[in-house]
């Protein structure tokens, strides 16, 4: 017998399409909002236990005459993407572990690493947290760290981010748990079980 996945209902497909056309949200944001595609990040983009990706979007808004009292959407432009995310409902929920996400799970073939939390990925503007991975900082980093950055940037690219090899990234202070989670992903991505065939070639070909 063949077991097929339950297809997404037409009305939900329509809702996602209309939301995308109306808001311009990234594909990753839509996945997370509608709880669709968690497994896609592993099966198609080779990043297991990934819920999605976060980024900031700057929009110029001009208050029109006689338009009433202004309302706040998001936050002021002077605040960093990481600060806006941390103070958002999503950021607070995932930090306080009140967001309904899958339980920590083993990576395929990586039981020796223990159970790994489900995480989101972001660029250098975001802090390293146990639930939020960001690239390693610096130009002269190890091969293993280069591979991690490449694997993370594959998800970033899906969401329209720009992630280049050797980019100057400001190092951030991070707790030991967050460092440990990133190190486990790094080890897994260079293991026999977790590596992908073309990652060495892609890392070598990326611009410095």
UniProtKB/TrEMBL annotation:
<protein>
    <recommendedName>
        <fullName>DDE Tnp4 domain-containing protein</fullName>
    </recommendedName>
</protein>
